[in-house]
Amino acid sequence: MSLTEQRSEGEWKRILTPQQYHVLREKGTEPAFTGKYYLNKKKGVYRCAACGQELFDSNTKFDSGTGWPSFWAPISEDRVLRKVDNSYSMQRIEVLCSKCGSHLGHVFDDGPAPTGERFCMNSISLDFKEGP
Ligand code: FE
């Protein structure tokens, strides 16, 4: 794993809001149905809120009913890192930004075609840019 945008936690604390820092750097989870993007149906690209790397395209977004923005694939597999997460007595796969290592959410295998995957993301980890 070679992160090309590495910062100290002190730097992240200065750059991010406390809420962003909690999710992105301390692997927190925003409450369901509270984030700014779970209902967003606009066309555009979702970038990492910490480093700006483009992560997800609106073309892969779907309504999962979970209250978190959900995608069936990243823009390309090299934009994300997958890491086994055994916290809270669950076996889950954590999803991190491949550029800065920030926590984005988790990926599950109950998503729609064509991948069958569901990237369950925190809105606060993303920065949406509307576009064609
Ligand atoms: Fe990032």
Detailed description of the structure:
It is a single chain. It is built from two helices and nine strands; from the N terminus they run H-H-E-E-E-E-E-E-E-E-E. With 132 residues, it is mainly beta. The strands form two sheets. The chain has a six-stranded antiparallel sheet, with no helix packed on it. Strand 1 (44-48) and strand 2 form a beta hairpin. The radius of gyration is 14 Å and the shape is globular. The mean pLDDT is 96. The structure holds fe (iii) ion. Fe (iii) ion binds next to loops. Fe (iii) ion is lined by residues 48, 50-51, 53, 97, 99-100, 102.
* Quaternary structure annotation: single chain
Reading the helices and strands in chain order gives HHEEEEEEEEE
Categorize the overall geometry.
globular
- Spell out which ligands are present: fe (iii) ion
Low-confidence runs of at least 5 consecutive residues: none
β content, as a range?
Answer: 25-35%
**Count of alpha and pi helical runs:** 2
Lateral strand order in the biggest sheet: 3-4-8-7-6-5
Major β-sheet annotation: 6 strands, antiparallel
